[in-house]
Every structure is written in structure tokens, then in C-alpha cells.
Design a protein that fits this description.
By secondary structure, the chain is of the alpha/beta class. The chain has 10 helices and 22 strands. The protein is globular, with a radius of gyration of 22 Å. The structure holds flavin-adenine dinucleotide (FAD).
Length: about 425
Amino acid sequence: MRISAINLAHYRLVVVGGGAGGLGAASKFARKLPKNSIAIIEPSEFHYYQPGFTFVGSGELKLTDNTRSEIDLIPSNTKWYKNAAKTLDPEQNTVLLENGESLTYDYLIVATGIRPRYDLIKGLPEALSMEGSGVCSIYIPHFAEKTNREIEAFKGGKALFTFPAGPIKCAGAPQKIMYLADEIFRNRGIRGKAELHYYTSLPKIFGIEKYAVALQKIVEEKDIRLHPRRVLKEVRLDKKTAIFDIFNEEGKPSGETEESEYSFLHVGPPCRPVPAVSDCKALVDATGFVDVDPNTLQSRRFVNVFAVGDTANTPNAKTAAAVSGQLGALEKNLKAVMAGKPLTGSYDGYASCPLLVGGKKVILAEFTPKGPLETLPINQAVPRGISYFMKRHIMQPLYWHGLVKGLWNGPTTIRKILHFGRSE
Ligand code: FAD
């Protein structure tokens, strides 16, 4: 698509999206490029530490504990366009903003993340919006707060937790909130009046076998019923009923459905790229994610375009931890392209998911699509207090002071030191 609009300005580098990946990348290049040669396009006034939403749902943290003003995170020598990108035109090196202005660039980083699509489930937006409906989701700020109110209001009955088909941010979050809710119900003495059910599109509780084995044990110990290959398709608010598609062994809808009543329903939503990205057919694959080389993060079609974070079609789990792993490769490779040199940075598919399992313990899942890739020289599939301490007290400061400042490239070096002399 060709963009015709008033050209505002030209930048050496334009970063679309000022979330975890966009800020991390912009901060890195703000230290390398001359003043005002970088623009960040980001419509939101606030930046949320999304991994903290689970604690907002459980009531352990407030939303404000996970919120910063975007302006305080934008690198000082960078121009912030407080607007959304409407259209990307990589053939013309141009980005059109929602307000009709347009920017041109030498290099582009796409970092617009993915967004929960509650609207893909019939009846869900209405059920979520109604206070006291029992329906909630930690995936966006005000619903994370509502999740805590619904957990507190729960008095017993069926509590359902769902995991969608297709991409989702932090695939562990839908079960983290379940284990925390289980703990809250036990502490309030109402667990005996409650039935907990986990409905997942997957054939097992978690995609990586090592952690699936550990989590299976946990759900059995906590008397949580697992329903594999079930995908939420509809919520009937009037009857407080959830309807699920039953998936077959190929991971496709079988045509059959199943229903369950609920008193409480936590929804892990399907997540999709934003339209500004998915509508740019020259840039994306058939699923609407930016089509990049999974190692270099460079667009397969446009050498001056890179993507970082959830919106890239890399096969890793969509997490902030993955962003940290990607930023080092992105920095090397974009620098190389700018200097006309070969690309040497390579992202290995690293992601991490600290699975809160209750009792102030965490299974610290760290993995690539090939399997576990753990940093500590201990078995991280064992629920541990030290892993909880890292999740609760280390990771958030690391995010604010390391990741979004472009100073944290993931734990590879630490892993190498801790595993020195050990065979992998
Ligand atoms: P984001 O950080 O989401 O940023 C995308 C940005 O793009 C946003 O600021 C948005 O406003 C902006 N944007 C969108 N559209 C446009 C547009 N058209 N123009 C300009 N800007 C636009 N990760 C972990 O590592 N560990 C965890 O324990 C963990 N738990 C999580 C729990 C929950 C409930 C959630 C929701 C997420 C969790 N994550 C976790 C995932 C992590 O937050 C994301 O993977 C990470 O934020 C991805 O970074 P990103 O930059 O790709 O996207």
C-alpha cells in the first residue's frame, strides 16, 4: 500500500511500539546514534510491567506498582510520537500515524506486541465488562484488577480457567493465576466448596515436557481437573455457562462441543498482532506476524526492517524474557546493516516463564523451542522459594532498570558462568 500524507520528518531509525521490545531497542540505539535521529511511535501514556498483572489478579500487588509513565522511559534524545501507527509502507520507508501525519526512515524496528482478542469469543466482552459476573482475565490492566475482585467475591462452585488455541503472551499466566486463586480459596477456608478446572487447547498442561511433568503433579496434588483439547468459544452470561470446542488430535476443532456451568471464569485470551502490522501484507506472514529470520530478526523481505518481541513470527514463547534474548542479536544485526557489514547476532529462541504454583514457590521454566535451557545449576522444574524470590523481587527491577533501558540481554552470560565445566 502507498501512503499519501503530509511528511512530518525523516529519522535514521523509527521504532513502532514503546513496550518492552521497542523501549529496549530504542534505548540501545539512542546511545549510538546522534541526538534526535530516533523516533518512537507509541500511543499509550502509561507503560505496564505486564508480568506483574498476575500479582494484581491475586491481590499481592496493585496496578500502580506495575505502572510507569511512558515519558519517563523514553530515552531523552529520542522523539516520542504519542500516537498509533496506522499503516506501515516498507516499500516507501514510511509510517503513517493515526492522526494523518507520516514519518520516513532509514531503518525500522517493529515492536507493537500482540493484544488480547476477547472479541473472538462470543459473549465474552459483555461478561468481562459486567462487574460481579464472575468472569475475568489478568491480561489487560483493568481486568487484572477485576480478577482480584472476582476472586475475593467467589464463595464456592465451579471455577474454570482457560488457555486458548493459537498465540498467547506468557503461556504460563493462565495457570499461574489458577494456582494463586487455589491458594486464596484454601486460605479463606472455601476450597472444599470449590471445584477447579483447567481447560486447555493443548494435549497436556504445558508445551515443554519437563515442566509439563512437574505441573501435572501439581494439578493432581491440588485436585485441579485438567481438560485437554478444549477451547473456549462462547460465554453465556444469562446461564453462567461456558461452551468449549473439543479439538481433535491434529489440534483442530472436531465439530463437537462441551458445556460447563461456572461461578468463576478466568479467560486466557487468544492474542493477535495489531492491524497496523497484520494489514501490511508485504511485511507479514499468513498469520499476520512480522515475517523475520528467527535468528537475525531481520525482515525476510526488507533488509532495513527488523522486528522484536511478540509481534515477530519467531517460534519462541511470547515473553519479556524472550525480548531480552532478542535485544542483543537485534543490536548487533541492525548495527551491522547500518555499517554495511554481515549480520553476526543470533537469537537462540530463549524464553522464560516463572510458574507461580502457590506457597511462595515457583517452577522457573526457561527454554527454547528445542527444550529446557536453564540458567541456575539446579533442577528448575522443582518448585522453589528461591525461584519465587527471583520472580517477586528481582525480575521487576531488572525489567525497569535493565530491559527497557536496553541494558539486559538475557541470562546467557550468567548461564555460561554458572555452568562452567558442566556438560549440558
Ligand atoms: P509489549 O510490551 O506489549 O509492547 C507493545 C507496545 O506496542 C505497547 O506499548 C502498545 O501500546 C504499542 N502499540 C500497539 N499498537 C501500536 C501501534 N499501532 N502503533 C504504535 N504502538 C503500538 N513475560 C515474561 O517474561 N515473564 C512473565 O512472567 C510474563 N507474564 C505475563 C503475564 C501476563 C498476564 C501478560 C499479559 C504478559 C506476561 N508476559 C510475561 C509477557 C510480556 O509482558 C510480553 O511478552 C512483552 O511485554 C512483549 O514485549 P513487546 O514489546 O513485544 O510487546
